[in-house]
């Protein structure tokens, strides 16, 4: 004799979305820290210096197209990130907070400074790694039990 079996399924889409966004927000903060480190690493090549009066002068500056070499470390120390959660999207901002950061990244025709990109190459190099880390643990694997 066959018995009747009833299966009830409940979809908690809103709750699942909230959990996923919380996890992605945590992951985004970790990705921001990772990207900070990669940009700082690209700015960590030093150069020999000499003192001229009260100033340090670099004896082996970077070539156009190469990341800037460290003289005082101000640019490197100013690298930071922040994350924003708005209307279901997460944005990670990574940047520098010095007067000359933009001129080094993009060049300055008025000052006859050619670009010495450090931010965009480091971010591009780590794009896939960042995306993998951003969604890590957000979507459970098929067949995985809670």
In short:
By secondary structure, this protein is an alpha+beta fold. Helix content is 39%, strand content 15%.
H and E order: HEEHEEHHH
Spatial sequence of strands, sheet with the most strands: 1-2
Task: Please estimate the helix content.
Answer: 25-40%
**What Rg do the Cα atoms give?**
24 Å
Note the topology.
Blueprint: H1 13-42, E1 49-52, E2 55-58, H2 74-78, E3 80-86, E4 89-95, H3 101-106, H4 119-125, H5 127-135
Antiparallel strand pairs: 1-2, 3-4
Helix pairs in contact: 1-5
What are the key terms here?
146 residues; alpha+beta; two-stranded antiparallel sheet; 4 strands
Explain what you see:
- This protein is an alpha+beta fold.
- It has helices at residues 13-42, 74-78, 101-106, 119-125, 127-135, and strands at residues 49-52, 55-58, 80-86, 89-95.
- A two-stranded antiparallel sheet has the order 1-2. Strands 3-4 form a two-stranded antiparallel ribbon.
- Helix 1 runs antiparallel to helix 5.
- The two termini are 34 Å apart.
